[in-house]
Structure formats: structure tokens, C-alpha cells
TrEMBL record:
Positions of the Disease resistance protein At4g27190-like leucine-rich repeats domain: 1003-1114
GO MF: ADP binding; ATP binding
Name of the featured protein: Disease resistance RPP13-like protein isoform 2
Protein's organism: Actinidia chinensis var. chinensis
Assigned protein family: Belongs to the disease resistance NB-LRR family.
A biological process from GO: defense response to virus
Database matches in PANTHER family: DISEASE RESISTANCE RPP13-LIKE PROTEIN 1 (PTHR36766:SF51), PLANT BROAD-SPECTRUM MILDEW RESISTANCE PROTEIN RPW8 (PTHR36766)
InterPro entries, A to Z: At4g27190-like_LRR, LRR_dom_sf, LRR_R13L1-DRL21, NB-ARC, P-loop_NTPase, Rx_N, WH-like_DNA-bd_sf, WHD_DRP
Residues annotated as domain NB-ARC: 183-351
Residues annotated as domain Disease resistance protein winged helix: 434-503
Key words of the record: ATP-binding, Leucine-rich repeat, Nucleotide-binding, Plant defense, Repeat
Domain (R13L1/DRL21-like LRR repeat region): residue spans on this chain: 693-819
SUPFAM superfamilies the UniProt entry points to: L domain-like, P-loop containing nucleoside triphosphate hydrolases, RNI-like
Length: 1451
């Protein structure tokens, strides 16, 4: 039975009381002569509130009480709606009174609907009186049932929120310790570190709340795991296994642009290339249900990763775990009592001292026993009790009847936690039922919504609603109803799935999510809050049931991705919204809507309007009718130009966000009258309106973040003084921006004065100043009174010759200085006179584009100061005149970046950088070899991980082997950078080889990249002496080195005499013996690979791209560990190695592209490795046969895909042995000379899923089995196009019983299609005039139909009702769509290059249609013109309409 009363009835009733007794409302009631009825309501509500606690307890077992509470809840909402109408009218009346006492100018700004208001009860017509009577009757009925149900007044003591000792909450840490999972953690990390050639999938299975996500998070963030993988990805899958979404999110981690309308195949190809060669870890968290085929599609891009790649899957479903995993799933069991107690105690006793009440521990032990070993239950109950110090409160939890409830999936422990929430927190929490599972939200986001819904009330003279809402949020966070997001570093939060279920359980009919069970649509009349997950295209059908929800207060779309390019049917804003008169929250965020209808002004109760990231250019004047509006979000509205003049009527507006609304021309007139405004993100000062800066002075409550732009337009500096920033105590972030140009018209003195008087309050946390042209900074910048300042940026302040004393700011953590060109020295004025320890907590310091900066002095007068003791990151870029040295003692520095500072030197003898992890050097002169040696030795501490050097020139001495060796001998005792793991050289001038002295000590380097080193001829000379060079190297990449001839120099004289001796010697060395991946690209002179490459025991991947001089491979071939061999654009390569079949039994991927003289793939003495899984050959112009000799057969039992394209001379394919049971994909295209396909490829039943044979002009016939479908029980995709008609006629398509997709240009006469088809693409039928209607009607599962190049086709037949996508292209005679119309299931209609097409069906287009594409249809185009064309009424509801590559809604 649902616990209805627990929802938040007492909170709603409390709000009703506050409204009924407020002074303004009482005056309104008296004026409208309904005071008596209202007082009766109040008395009845008091009687009801007195018995609510008793009702909440009894409803658990008494169905009648439960129903009474359901009715009461509905009544409370209806009464609240009615009071909101009264409140809105009272506000309107107040506005009229104000206008009547103001000037005519102000009166003109009041909407006409207000000026027509007739005092004396004009609004209380028959309908309103009827509502009042209905409420009165229902309240009386509810009161009568109190005695009938035996409800009594019950006093329940709860510690008031304001009296509780509260622990300040923080998002930085969530669980200080994880109990009971040490063994699981160790086992999982060991599985992750196992080096396997294939992708390893490790499932973690267990019931909800048992800690699957937590243990995955712990492992994911472990330092050992971080170091083991090149890339880590965390994806929350949830109950919707959306392959496209998941693929795009993974692609985002490797910076793949997956935006736009790319297909899944396009995104996966990009992702596959980006992941190639990387050792990655992907966590797929919270997988519910996934089909085998879907899983195979999703993981297909993972196949090219380096050895040791892993995927962790967390799931509640053991069947899913078994299906996805490559190892036995890791089953998480319930925790033992002791561990569960530790979790409970960790939370419960944060604020309670057990010494004062020792019984709490024994009661707590009994409570924990009821948690069933679930960490989530223990944590949540601990969070509940941390604020309950009384023994009686703990006993109430222990003895609650809720533990005994049956018939619900909600854990009793969670229900108890909710039951004991204060009423005001209950309603805030239950409202979160509208949040999609796994949605990441910000604190402010929820607080603004709670405010709009009336859950947080502004008390006279009390705390701000925003602050009170923040306290509510942190209270729920401390009780574990929310938890910090694992991926957003504390800035965002999530709800555990079970907590989300809890909110939905208590929300019942009041909240509904569009994606949930459709059964809820039957009860939409009682729904108050709705949400849905945005789709790329949201059409009418999605919202067809919304008209039933006439009392709806919330219309809220949520996006689970960063995509801001959604399309919405115009039906929603134009037709649906005007019917939803009770709306308080409305969002169109991220939709490509271009205009807001005037009817928006009819939504009088609206308090929250989010139009962020829309294409809106103007807001309607009716916006000023929204008197209750509190929040207006216009972030990212790049096209917005103007506000309506009526905006001054929004007297309740508190939040106005216009961040990144870059086209906005000016601030709205009357903005200074919005005295309730708490946040104004931007204030724009336009030319000729500099005086308007004074309007900021009236906005006394501004807080949060404020950016003032266009300060150069302030003509009278005294106007800036009236802003009174010093009086705005709540401001946290202040940005002041002048313009970039107009130097000749700028007054330095005025700008200096303006900045001086714009001094903010000392509470400020961040200060940003840009394009200021004053000659000096005011004294308040750097003043010690700004003790809360944590971040400062000063950018392009070109006329300032000195920096302010920022070292005095004791809380400053981040400092960015850029483009302050006149500064020549940084010294005592920067640190602050008399400051012995400047910048005590500074962590990030950046100097950029300081063109005049010459010296950085570490001293203050005669005294050397100890500054930057906490500095973590130092960045210096484009400072061409900077001489001298950097500060020497930087004990915490981890990242050092120096770019384009050619005169800067490091004081190496005094350098102290014990914590350094990353060094990046670009365009810095390298002075000498000893200097480099000294730097190397000084950086010996084990912290350095990454070194990146680019665009520098090295001295000639470095290129003299004898000198290099001499230096090496002289520094044998030197320390080496053994901790370095990543080394990157780019554009190093004069570098001809890597000196032994530099490379031999780098024992920990795993990744070495050398890019664009134009003089590099070889990596090392005298290889035989490199005994222990790069022993840990895993990846070597060389790119764009045009003079590179070989990796290792081989003396010609020694080559014949000592080859065998040297070979034996090398095989015993540890030189690069850990190498796993070798990539060589754009090395034009590379002729050969090392002859001893086969000795590398772990080499798994070799890629050679654009090396036109490479003729052949080493005689002894490659190591047997090689799994992937990719060769591309090697113009001189004639053949692959002969030894391939003998040794490379682990080769899985062989890809050869655009090698124009390559004549064969399989040598005379060999074949393809049996281990081969993927073979792909493209664009090899001279390739005549895969095998050098006839009679060779493919013997690859592991082969999964076989692809050959664009090899115009290929005449023969080798036959295949009858063991291709794993072959899934067979594709041959654009092989003009191919004459036949051997029967052996298809002679036995196969598991082929996809066959593509196209554009092969000389092919005589298809294999017999393919024509008759005798061996293809699993075939799903068949593409046979551009083949001889005689071949196509012989194919019995209808015999492919599993076929889903067919692409063909087969003659239609007599063709019978399989009924299993879901996608049919027909191409190039030059003489066909009609299509067989009967054949199409058989295709009851068809979803996609594409018809292209039918020059005589005039129309299409009646289409199957299942069709979702229809494409008609290049049909010259095509004129119309079937008279009977299009299927009501159709989602996408595309008509391209049909010059005679000019009519849609008379009955219109289906409401299901989401996309309409029209291209080169000149007769149709004018008929679709916006607001004018004949068909505009038929297409305006479609979310996305594109004509000739342009959105019709943009016209």
C-alpha cells in the first residue's frame, strides 16, 4: 500500500496556512468579499493538520486512511492552485495601483490587459465562485471523515533543523573509507593488470545498494590502475542501453567530435581509430538489460586497443554478467555485520558523542542487523540518525512498523530514512522523482526548481530563499539522499537508483516521467510534475497525452549528454502550453526553437523559465505579464538581441542569466526596477549609454557572479561611483571588461578612475579584469582586506607598467596574468612590501604574452623571500624578452610549462623541484650539453612523469658522438630520471640521433614520441652498446621525420662480417625489450626496419604509414606476439614477408591500404596466419591476386571479417577451406577485374551476418550457395549492387529467412522479398515505372525504404504500416506520395532531386513525422515557405524541416 500522506502533506498544508494568513492575501480576501469562506478553510485545515501524523502511521495498514490521504493530497494541490490565482491577481492589482500613481511613461509599459482591470471583484465570475464553492465542499467532506476514520491528534517530537548540530558538507570527499571490500578491490585490480592479447571484460554483479558502483569507483581511481592504463573512461549506462549515446560518450574521452547527424558507423570508425594502440579501461556502470547483438556492436571499436585493455561492467543481472564477461563475474555479497556497522557508525556518530548516551550504540547495532548487509541502507540510516541525539528517536526508528511492510521493492531502511525527514525536506526530496536515473545535477539547479514550486518560502526579514534552499540541499546530501558525482569532481551530484526509486514510490501520481510505464498516463489528471529525456527530435506523438494533465505545474526536459542541438515540434509551444495554465516550471533548454509565442504571457503562475541554448532572437512583450517569474535563464542564447520593454514588470525576478548571449545589444530599460534581483550574470554598457551603469546601484541584492562589459563606454567616471559594488556583499565573482580596440579614443585617466571606484566588497572570491587601458592598477587590487580572494585574472591591460601586490592575498590559489605588455620586471611590488611569505597558498600561476617582461626577481629589496611554497602548476608562454631565471625553490611544483621564451634560463645548480611530474618546453634555446646534463640530474627525484620538448634547437656538440660519449664517461655517477614515463620530442632542430647519455638512464619511460625532427637520420648509433636503454618502453611513435633512414644505424663494413655475432649479442640485451607498439608515419626516406625486430618478445602492434621508400621487411620477420599489422601508403612495397604463416600465429588484424606496387599478400611459401581475425585490403592498384601462386587456400578458422576494396587489377580470390565458422562479414567492392568468387567461401553453413558484393563489372557468377541461400541461416545484411543483371536475377532473396537489410539494383520483375526485412534500399532501375504494391504489403516489419535513381518512377505504392524512414532520391518523374497517405509510424521523409514532385497527401503528413528533408525539388520548395506556403500548416509541427540544406525555420 502506498504511503501517500508521507509525501509532504504537512508541508503543503503549512504553505497553505502561510498563504491564507499573509497580510497581502487577507487584504485581497476582504476586498473581494470572500474573507469568511477563507477563514472557514483555515479552521478546517487546522483540524486536518492536527491528525496528519496519526493518519501517516495508520495508512500503512488501513486502506480507507490511505484513500483519505490521497484525496487530501489532491485537494491540497487544488487549493494551492486557487490561492496562487488569488495571489497573482493581488500582485496584478498592486502593479496597477503603482502604475496609476506613476508617470504616463511608466503606465505605458503596463500590459493592456492590466489597464483594463476593473476593481471590485471583476475576476470572480461564475467560474471562480464555482471553484471556491467546490473547495469548501471538499474540505467539509474531508473534515467529516476524520471522526469516521478514528483519527486523533498525535504529537511527534522532531529536532528542529535550526537546532541540530550540523556537519558542514563538502563535495570534495564522499566516503572517507570503504569497508569490507578490500579483498574485492585486490582481486579486481589483479584482473585489470593481467596482460591479455584480447579485450578483457570483468563483470561485477550484485543486488541494488550492495556497492557495485562504489567498488568500481574505488578501483577506477586507484593509483596503480591510473598508472597502468593510458586512458580511463567512465560511462553510466542505466536502464537504457543506447548504443549511439554510449559510443558518443566514450568518444568524448578521446576528443572525437561526434556532434551533428553522424551515423553510428561513422562514430564507431572514429572511435576505433582513436582507441587504436591505447591501453584503456572502460567502466560501464549500472547495465540493466542488453542483447547479445547490441553488446557486440558496442564493443566492436574496442578491438584495436593495445594488449591488456579492460572493460568493467556493473550489473544487477547475473545473466547480463555471464553474457558480457570474458571471465567469471565478480559477485558482491552482503557485508558482514561488523563492516555494515562501521559504515553506519561512520555516518551516524559524526555529530553525536556516545559518552553522553551509551545506549545509542546498542540500539544502533540492532538497527544495523535490519539493514541486511546492504551498504546503502546502513549509510542512509546513519545519515538519518546523525541529527537525532535522543535515545527515543533511535528507538522510534528501531521499532517502526515500516520494517514489517510487505509488497514493495523499496528497502524498509530507505523508507524509514524518508519517514523521519522533516516535512519541508520530504517535499523537496519527492520532487526529485522527476529526475532521470543517473542524471547529474547541480545544487543551484535543484534549489531554483524548489523555489519555483513553492517549497522554499521567503520570510519577511529572513534568509534568502537561495540560501535556505542550499541548506535544504546539503541536509539531504548529509543524509545520503544525494551523493557527489564520481565524474564531475564534486560540482555535480546524483541519486542512487534505489533512492530514485524511493522518490518515485512516494511521488506516486503527482510526478511522472515520460519514459516510464505508460500505465501512469491513465491518471494524468492528478499529475502535477512531469519530465522527460530529450531526444534529438521530439515530435507531437511524444506529447499526445499531455493534454490530460490540466493541473501540470512542471514541464521539464532533461538532457543526459552535453548535446545542445535538439529539435522540438512547434505544437508544444504553440498549442500545448497555452492549455497548461498551472505551469510554474517551464524549460525549452537546448531546443532549436527560434521564437517564443505571445501566449507565454498567459502562464501567469510561471516562476521558472529556461530558454538557455535556444535560437531565440527576441522575447515577446507578453513576457512582462509573468508577474510571479523568479528565474529567467537565457544562457548561451547566441541570437538573442533585445529584451521586451515590459520586463520591468517582473518585480519578483531573482535570477537573470544571460551568460554567452553575445548578440545582446543592450540591457533592457527599467532593469534597475527589478529590486528582487539576486543574480545578474552580465551587465552590458553600450556606446552612448554609459550613464546606464548607474542602474546597477539600485540592484542592492546582487550576488553570485556578475560581469560588466563595455566599460570603455562610461563617459562620466562619476557614474561608476553610483554602482556601489562595495555595498554588494553577496558578490562572489566579478568580471570587468573593456573593449579590445579603439585605443585612440580611450581616456587612460577616466579608465583608471572607473576601475578605482568599482571596488567590490572584501567578500569577493574571484576577480577578472580584461582590456583595461589605465596606466596603473588601483591600490585596492591586492589589498590584504580581500582575505577571501581565491582567483584573479588580469588580461590585456597593456598600459600598466607594474603589477599589484597580489602576494599579500593570503587565500589566493589561482593567478592568471596575460598581455600586460608594459611590465618589464616582476619583483617586490608583486610580492608586497614587507611580506615575508608571499603567495602562501597559490597553486596555479600563469604568465602569457608578456611581451615586454625582462626580469623576474625573487628578492624583496635585500631580502630573499620564500614565495610560492604551495605552487603546483607554473606556466610561462610567449614572453620573448624574459631573461634570467625562475624562482628556485618550488617544493610542490608538479607541472612546469615554458613556451616561446628564447632567452629564459633555469638556474640549474640551485634548482629544487622535488615534486615535479610534467615538464613541457617549447621554443626555448638549449644552451649546452653540460646544461642539459645538469638539468637531468637535478630533476632526478622520482616525481617526474612527463617531459615534452618542442621547437628548440640543440648545439652542434650534442651531435658529435665522441663528445657525447666523453660526457657520458665523465658523468657515470650521475643520477637519472628513472621516474619519467612519457617523453615527447617535436621539431627539435639539429637533432640527428638520440645521444646515449640522455636515453640510457630513462629506465621508466613507457611512451616515446618523436615528431617533425627534420634532421633525424637514425635513433641510435652503435646499437650494440645500448645494453639497458629504455627497458620499460611500451610505445614508440615516430612521425614526420623526412630524413630518417633506419631506426638503428648499421655500419656497412660490419654488416657482413659481424651480423651473426651482433645478432646473438642483441638478443641477450634488455634494449627496448618491453616494446608493445611501434608506429612509423610520414618518414619519406625510411628504407628498412631492424633485422632483429623479431626478438622483441612483447611487440603486439606495428603501423607503417606513408613511408614511400620502404621496400621490404626483415628477413626473419616479426615476433610471434604481433597481433596487429597495418601498412598504408608505402609506395615501394612489393610484397609482405614470406615467413608470415610460419611464426605469426597470434596475428589477428592485417590491414593494407594504398600500396600501389604491392603484387600479392600471400608469399609463394606461405599463407595467412590461422589466428587472423580481420583482413582488409584497400586501394592496391597492382594487386592481381592475394596469393603469389595458384592453388593456395585460405586456412583461417578464426577469421571474422574479410574486406577487399578498390583493387582494380585483382582477378582472383583464393579459395577457402571449409572451416570459416567464425566469419561474420564478407565484403568485396570496386574490383573491376574480378571474374569469380570461389565456392569454398560459402560451401558449408556459415555464421555470416553481412555480405556485400558490389561494383564488380566482370564477375561472371555468384557462388551457387549464395544464389539459393543454402548455407546462410544467420545472414542479416545483403548488399548486391552494380553487378550484371543476369547474376542478380538468379538470387532467391525470399529464401534468406533472417535477412534484415537488403541493398540491391536487381531487376524487380518476379523478385520476391523476404518478409523479415526491416531495411530495403533499391538503386538504379532506369526503366521501372511502377513498384509492386503486393510485394511491399508483405513486408510487415519494414522500417526503412530507400528508392534511388528511378528516372521513370512517378509514385510509390501503398506502404507497410511499420515504415519509419522513407527516402526517394533522383527520380525525375516522381510527382506525388500515395493518395492513401503515408504510414502513421513514419519518422523521417527525405525527397532529393525529384524536380517534378509538388504535392503532399490531402490528409496531410503523419503526426509521427520528426524529420523532413527536401533537396532540389523546385516545385515543392515555394509551397513549403514559412507562414506563406500552401503546405506550411502541414509541416510546421515537424521538429526538423530542411530544404536545400537550410532549416525552414531560419527563413
Amino acid at each position: 500500500m502506498a504511503a501517500v500522506g508521507e509525501i509532504f502533506l504537512s508541508a503543503i498544508v503549512g504553505v497553505l496556512f502561510e498563504k491564507l494568513i499573509s497580510g497581502e492575501m487577507l487584504n485581497f480576501f476582504r476586498r473581494e468579499q470572500i474573507h469568511t469562506q477563507v477563514m472557514n478553510w483555515e479552521r478546517t485545515l487546522r483540524e486536518i493538520r492536527a491528525v496528519l501524523n496519526d493518519a501517516e502511521e495508520k495508512q500503512i495498514r488501513d486502506k480507507d486512511v490511505n484513500l483519505w490521504l490521497e484525496d487530501l493530497q489532491d485537494l491540497a494541490y487544488d487549493l494551492d492552485d486557487l490561492l496562487d490565482e488569488f495571489s497573482t491577481e493581488a500582485l496584478r492589482y498592486k502593479l496597477i495601483e503603482k502604475s496609476q500613481s506613476s508617470t504616463n511613461k511608466v503606465r505605458a509599459l503596463i500590459p493592456t490587459c492590466c489597464t483594463r482591470f476593473n476593481l471590485g471583484g471583476a475576476i470572480f465570475d461564475f467560474k471562480m465562485r464555482s471553484k471556491i464553492k467546490d473547495i469548501t465542499t471538499r474540505l467539509q467532506d474531508m473534515s467529516k471523515k476524520i471522526s469516521e476514520l478514528g483519527l486523533h491528534k498525535v504529537d511527534v517530537f522532531m529536532t528542529p533543523i535550526q537546532n541540530r548540530e550540523r556537519l558542514p558538507t563538502t563535495s570534495a570527499t564522499y566516503e572517507p573509507h570503504i569497508y569490507g571490500r578490500d579483498k574485492s578491490k585486490t582481486e579486481l585490480i589483479n584482473l585489470l593488470r593481467m596482460e591479455e592479447s584480447n579485450l578483457g571484460i570483468i563483470p561485477i554483479a550484485g543486488m541494488g545498494g550492495i556497492g557495485k558502483t562504489t567498488i568500481a569507483q574505488v578501483v577506477y581511481n586507484d593509483e596503480v590502475v591510473k598508472k597502468h592504463f593510458d586512458l580511463k573512461v567512465w560511462i553510466c549506462v542505466s536502464d537504457n542501453f543506447d548504443i549511439m549515446r554510449i559510443t558518443k560518450e566514450i568518444a568524448g574521452y578521446v576528443h572525437v567530435d561526434s556532434s551533428g547527424s553522424k551515423t553510428l558507423d561513422q562514430v564507431q570508425v572514429q572511435l576505433k581509430n582513436a582507441l587504436a594502440g591505447k591501453k584503456f579501461l572502460i567502466v560501464l556502470d549500472d547495465v540493466w538489460d542488453v542483447k547479445y547483438n547490441e553488446w557486440n556492436i558496442l564493443k566492436s571499436p574496442f578491438s584495436d586497443g593495445a594488449p591488456g585493455c579492460k572493460v568493467i561492467v556493473t550489473t544487477r543481472d547475473k545473466e547480463v554478467a555471464l553474457m558480457m564477461g570474458t571471465v567469471q563475474y565478480h559477485a558482491l555479497e552482503c557485508l558482514p555485520h561488523e563492516e555494515c556497522w562501521s559504515i553506519f557508525a561512520q555516518h551516524a556518530f559524526r555529530n553525536i558523542n556516545t559518552d553522553t548516551n551509551p545506549n545509542l550504540e546498542s540500539i544502533g547495532q540492532e538497527i544495523v542487523k535490519k539493514c541486511g548487509g546492504l551498504p546503502l541502507a546502513a549509510r542512509t540510516l546513519g545519515g538519518l540518525l546523525q541529527c537525532k541525539p535522543r535515545e527515543s528517536e533511535w528507538k522510534n526508528v528501531l521499532n517502526s512498523k515500516i520494517w514489517e511492510l510487505k509488497g514493495s521493492d523499496i528497502l524498509p531502511a530507505l523508507r524509514l530514512s524518508y519517514h523521519h525527514l522533516p516535512a519541508h525536506l520530504k517535499q523537496c526530496f519527492v520532487y526529485c522523482a522527476i529526475l532521470p536515473k543517473d542524471y547529474e545535477f547541480e545544487e543551484k539547479e535543484l534549489v531554483l526548481l524548489w523555489m519555483a514550486e513553492g517549497f522554499i518560502c521567503q520570510q519577511e526579514g529572513g534568509r534568502k530563499m537561495e540560501d535556505l534552499g542550499g541548506e535544504y540541499f546539503r541536509e539531504l546530501l548529509s543524509r545520503s539522499f544525494f551523493q557527489p558525482s564520481r565524474m564531475m569532481e564534486g560540482s555535480k551530484f546524483v541519486m542512487h537508483d534505489l533512492i530514485n526509486d524511493l522518490a518515485q514510490f512516494f511521488a506516486r501520481q503527482t510526478c511522472f516521467r515520460l519514459e516510464d510505464n505508460k500505465e501512469q498516463y491513465k491518471k494524468l489528471k492528478k499529475a502535477r510534475h512531469s519530465s522527460y529525456t530529450q531526444g534529438n527530435l521530439d515530435g507531437i506523438k511524444k506529447f499526445e497525452n499531455f493534454h490530460k494533465a490540466e493541473h501540470l505545474r512542471t514541464f521539464l526536459p532533461f538532457s543526459l549528454t552535453e548535446l545542445k542541438d535538439y529539435s522540438l515540434s512547434s505544437y508544444v509551444p504553440l498549442e500545448l502550453l497555452p492549455k497548461l495554465k498551472c505551469l510554474r516550471v517551464l524549460s525549452f533548454s537546448s531546443y532549436r526553437i527560434r521564437e517564443i509565442p505571445t501566449s507565454i504571457g498567459e502562464l501567469k503562475r510561471l516562476r521558472y523559465l529556461n530558454l538557455s541554448y535556444t535560437l531565440v532572437e527576441r522575447l515577446p512583450e507578453s513576457l512582462g505579464d509573468l508577474y510571479n517569474l523568479q528565474t529567467l535563464l537565457l544562457r548561451g542564447c547566441e541570437r538573442l538581441k533585445k529584451f521586451p520593454t515590459s520586463i520591468e514588470n517582473l518585480s519578483n525576478l531573482r535570477q537573470l542569466d544571460i551568460t554567452d548571449a553575445d548578440s545582446l545589444e543592450e540591457m533592457p530599460l527599467g532593469i534597475d526596477k527589478l529590486e528582487s534581483l539576486q543574480k545578474l550574470s552580465n551587465f552590458i554598457i553600450t556606446k552612448g549609454n554609459g550613464f546606464r551603469i548607474t542602474e546597477l546601484g539600485n540592484l542592492t541584492n546582487l550576488g553570485g557572479k556578475l560581469e560588466i562589459t563595455g566599460l570603455q563606454n562610461v563617459v562620466d567616471p562619476r557614474d561608476a561611483q553610483k554602482v556601489n559594488l562595495n555595498g554588494k556583499e553577496s558578490l562572489d565573482v566579478l568580471s570587468m571588461v573593456w573593449s579590445k580596440g579603439s585605443e585612440d579614443l580611450r581616456n587612460e585617466g577616466d579608465e583608471t578612475y572607473v576601475l578605482n571606484v568599482l571596488r567590490p566588497h572584501s567578500n569577493l572570491k574571484e576577480l577578472h579584469i580584461s582590456f583595461y587601458h589605465g596606466s596603473r592598477f588601483p591600490t585596492w587590487i591586492g589589498n590584504q582586506h580581500f582575505s577571501n580572494m581565491v582567483c584573479i585574472s588580469l588580461r590585456d591591460c597593456k598600459n600598466c607598467s607594474s603589477l599589484p601586490p597580489l602576494g599579500q592575498l593570503r587565500s589566493l590559489k589561482e593567478l592568471f596574468l596575460e598581455g600586460i605588455s608594459d611590465v618589464k620586471q616582476v619583483g617586490s611590488e608583486f610580492y608586497g612590501q614587507g611580506c615575508s611569505k608571499p603567495f602562501p597558498v597559490l597553486e596555479i600561476l600563469s604568465f602569457e604574452n608578456m611581451l615586454g617582461w625582462e626580469n623576474w626577481y625573487p628578492n624583496v629589496g635585500e631580502t630573499e623571500v620564500r614565495a610560492f611554497t604551495c605552487l603546483i602548476k607554473l606556466s610561462i608562454g610567449r614572453c620573448p624578452k624574459l631573461l634570467g631565471t625562475l624562482p628556485n625553490d618550488l617544493p610542490c611544483l608538479r607541472t612546469l610549462r615554458i613556451e616561446n621564451c628564447p632567452k629564459l634560463l633555469l638556474d640549474v645548480p640551485n634548482l629544487v623541484l622535488p615534486s615535479i611530474t610534467t615538464i613541457s618546453i617549447k621554443a626555448v634555446t638549449c644552451p649546452s650539453l653540460p646544461w642539459l646534463l645538469e638539468m637531468r640530474n637535478k630533476l632526478e627525484p622520482s616525481s617526474l612523469k612527463s617531459l615534452y620538448i618542442r621547437d628548440i634547437s640543440i648545439p652542434d656538440t650534442l651531435c658529435d658522438p665522441s663528445v657525447a660519449d666523453a660526457v657520458e664517461l665523465a658523468s657515470v655517477e650521475s643520477n637519472h630520471m628513472s621516474s619519467l614515463t612519457s617523453l615527447n620530442f617535436q621539431n627539435i632542430q639539429n637533432l640527428r640521433f638520440l645521444p646515449k647519455w640522455f636515453s640510457e638512464g630513462l629506465s621508466g619511460v613507457k611512451s616515446l614520441e618523436i615528431n617533425r625532427c627534420n634532421e633525424l637520420t637514425t635513433l641510435w648509433q652503435n646499437v650494440g652498446t645500448l645494453e639497458h636503454c629504455f627497458p620499460a618502453l611500451l610505445s614508440l611513435q615516430i612521425w614526420g621525420c623526412p630524413q630518417l633512414v633506419s631506426l638503428f644505424e648499421e655500419e656497412a663494413e660490419e654488416r657482413q662480417q659481424q651480423q651473426q655475432q651482433q645478432q646473438q649479442q642483441l638478443e641477450g640485451l634488455s634494449f627496448m625489450m618491453s616494446l608493445e607498439s611501434l608506429k612509423l608515419r610520414h618518414c619519406e626516406k625510411l628504407e628498412k626496419l631492424p633485422q632483429w625486430l623479431h626478438t622483441f618478445p612483447f611487440l603486439g602492434e606495428l603501423q607503417i604509414d606513408s613511408c614511400p621508400s620502404l621496400v621490404s621487411f626483415p628477413k626473419k620477420g616479426f615476433p610471434s606476439t604481433l597481433r596487429k599489422l597495418k601498412i598504408s601508403a608505402c609506395g615501394a612495397l612489393e610484397s609482405l614477408p614470406e615467413w608470415m604463416t610460419h611464426t605469426n600465429y597470434n596475428l589477428e588484424v592485417l590491414k593494407v591500404d594504398y600500396c600501389p606496387v604491392l603484387k600479392y599478400i600471400i608469399s609463394p611459401r606461405g599463407g595467412l596466419p590461422p589466428s587472423l581475425k580481420h583482413l582488409a585490403i584497400t586501394g592496391c592498384a597492382m594487386l592481381e591476386s592475394l596469393a603469389a601462386e595458384e592453388g593456395v587456400k585460405i586456412n583461417c578458422p578464426s577469421l571474422e571479417s574479410f574486406e577487399i576494396r578498390l583493387c582494380k587489377k585483382l582477378k582472383f580470390l583464393p579459395d577457402a577451406l571449409h572451416n570459416l565458422k567464425n566469419l561474420r562479414r564478407f565484403e568485396i567492392e570496386w574490383l573491376n577485374s574480378l571474374e569469380s568468387i570461389p565456392e569454398g567461401w560459402f560451401s558449408l553453413p556459415t555464421n555470416l551476418r553481412e555480405i556485400r558484393i558490389s561494383s564488380i563489372e566482370n564477375l561472371d557468377a555468384l557462388p551457387h550457395s549464395l544464389q539459393n541461400n543454402s548455407n546462410f541461416p544467420s545472414l542479416e545484411v545483403l548488399d548486391v549492387t552494380s553487378l550484371r543483371p543476369s547474376i542478380l536475377k538468379k538470387i532467391s532473396f525470399d529464401r534468406f529467412s533472417s535477412l534484415k537489410e537488403l541493398i540491391t539494383d536487381s531487376p524487380m520483375e518476379g523478385m520476391s522479398l523476404p518478409t523479415s526485412l526491416t531495411e530495403l534500399k533499391l538503386y538504379r532501375f532506369p526503366y521501372l515505372e511502377t513498384l509492386c504494391s503486393r510485394e511491399f504489403q508483405k513486408l510487415t516489419s519494414l522500417q526503412v525504404l530507400s528508392i534511388s535513381w528511378f528516372p521513370r518512377l512517378a509514385s510509390v505504392p501503398s506502404l507497410p504500416p511499420s515504415l519509419q524512414q522513407l527516402e526517394i532520391e533522383f527520380c525525375d518523374e516522381f510527382t506525388s506520395i500515395p493518395e492513401q497517405g503515408l504510414p502513421q509510424s513514419l519518422l523521417e521523409l527525405s525527397i532529393w532531386s525529384c524536380p517534378k514532385f509538388e504535392s503532399f497527401p490531402e490528409q496531410g503528413l503523419p503526426q509521427s513525422l520528426l524529420e523532413l528533408y527536401v533537396f532540389k525539388c523546385p516545385k515543392l520548395k515555394p509551397l513549403c515557405e514559412k507562414d506563406k506556403g500552401k503546405y506550411w500548416p502541414l509541416i510546421r509541427h515537424i521538429p526538423k524541416v530542411t530544404i536545400d540544406h537550410r532549416s525552414i525555420f531560419d527563413t
